[in-house]
């Protein structure tokens, strides 16, 4: 079953959305890799220069309670966050 899911963007990814978020249609069985591809396609609709899913590869995906493991199904959450790596001291 498909769900309308909110994706919150952080760090450098926030520049690709005026509200810092976007909405995508997800499936519970979708893997984290498939989720990244879906998000990349959605961003490219308004930002054709976005390089695609490889730009999201280093970003962690979190649902409302935890960071998801690579390759795991995203489950039935309706809100996700993409967390790019951060440098700093």
Low-confidence stretches: none
The end-to-end span amounts to 43 Å
Number of β-strand runs:
4
Rg on CA atoms, Å = 12 Å
Classify the secondary structure makeup into a structural class: alpha+beta
Nearest-integer average pLDDT: 92
Largest sheet: 4 strands, mixed
The total of helices stands at 1
Into which percent range does the helicity of residues fall?
10-25%
- Overall 3D geometry? globular
Share of β-strand residues: 25-35%
Order of helices and strands: EEHEE
Strand order of the largest sheet: 2-1-4-3
Give a description of the structure.
- The protein has 89 residues and is an alpha+beta fold.
- Helices cover 17% and strands 26% of the residues.
- The protein has 1 helix and 4 strands, in the order ββαββ.
- A 4-stranded mixed β-sheet has the order 2-1-4-3, with helices on one face.
- The longest helix is centred in the middle third of the chain and has 15 residues, at 32-46.
- The model has no long low-confidence stretch (mean pLDDT 92).
Give the topology, please.
Layout (H helix, E strand, L loop, with lengths): L1 E8 L11 E7 L4 H15 L13 E3 L16 E5 L6
Parallel strand pairs: 1-4
Antiparallel strand pairs: 1-2, 3-4
